[in-house]
Amino acid sequence: MLGEYTWIEGFAVYSKKAPAELERPVILTLGGSTTDAARGEHSWPEELSKLLAEKGISATVVNGGISGYSTNQELLKLVRDGLEFKPDIIISYSGVNDRGEYSELPYPMVHPYQRYVLEFLTRSQYSPLLPNTVYLISKVLGGAPPRHIDATLGVPTSRTLGQQYERNMVLMNAIAQVSGATFYGIIQPNAYVGPSGEIKTQTGLRKPKPAEYVSQLRDLYRQIADLPARHPFVHSFLPIFEGEGLYQKDGIHATLKGDHLIAEKVLDLILPEVSARQTNGRGVPEPAIER
């Protein structure tokens, strides 16, 4: 056990039981550093797990949040690893990291860390001096000649960052549906953009974000502001942090009080589904594929 959770290949599982024996429903959470269990001393999924226990609600929270992840990486992680837990409820708490730094156009699915590794692994192994001579000598001596590995970042997209965010939410919802799970996409709050897309005046922040960061954030949030009206599985949490003392010094990450508030709002949102899945499976959609 690490702290209050068991670490299983990139997931913090708030249970001591084996993955196949977790209490249901299993609630899988995805997100960036504002969700990540290992980043600080608290997280909203951990607070959600505590709330469930306090209220005597049988369920297991599996936290897949990783610092630096946007919905692009969440989607990939859900497909590759998240479904292995056979989740009943899937939650994406995201928005801030989709502003461009971790989802740069025109290849938003390629994380900067992936790009660095890819560029390192595919760098030329030929000497810049007389490369053909190096190849010939290697051949004569019987060694394997250096090989150049080609790589691609994929087909460049014409989507905007807001359209990419929407696409990822729609795909995660579709994956949840065919897996017999229920999906909740949550647009995360921050200290810079208000519920209507307006720039908020920052007060009390010791390390506020630079103007370019705020501008990128505002542009994205303007693009995704109408998603809750068009997709019933998307919910905006922008209004919930109107109180004081809920953000840490950067205006992005929540304090313990803030994480607890997020957990309360999440529980309010998913409680009907949790209850439905506890009533002998009644009201639970049948999976279209084997999970």
Question: Briefly, what is this?
Answer:
α1 (44-54) links the parallel β3 (26-31) and β4 (60-63). The chain has helices at 44-54, 71-80, 112-121, 131-140, 161-178, 211-224, 227-230, 256-278; strands at 6-8, 11-13, 26-31, 60-63, 89-94, 182-187, 234-236. Helix content is 34%, strand content 11%.
Structure report:
The structure is a single chain. The chain has helices at residues 44-54, 71-80, 112-121, 131-140, 161-178, 211-224, 227-230, 256-278; strands at residues 6-8, 11-13, 26-31, 60-63, 89-94, 182-187, 234-236. A seven-stranded mixed sheet has the order 1-2-4-3-5-6-7, with helices on both faces. The chain folds into two domains: 6-110 and 161-278, Rossmann fold; 111-152, no CATH class. The chain has 291 residues and is of the alpha/beta class. It starts with 5 loop residues before the first strand and ends in a 13-residue tail after the last helix.
Task: Please supply descriptive tags for the structure shown above.
291 residues, alpha/beta, Rossmann fold, seven-stranded mixed beta sheet
| Sheet with the most strands: spatial strand order | 1-2-4-3-5-6-7
Beta content? 5-15%
Rg to the nearest angstrom? 22 Å
CATH superfamily of the largest domain: SGNH hydrolase
CATH level-1 class of the largest domain = Alpha Beta
For the secondary structure, the number of strands is 7
Mean pLDDT across residues: 87
Residue windows where pLDDT falls under 50 for at least 5 positions: none
CATH architecture of the largest domain: 3-Layer(aba) Sandwich
Structural class: alpha/beta
Number of domains: 2
Q: Specify the biggest β-sheet.
A: 7 strands, mixed
Instruction: Please estimate the helix content.
Output: 25-40%
Which geometry do the CA atoms define? globular
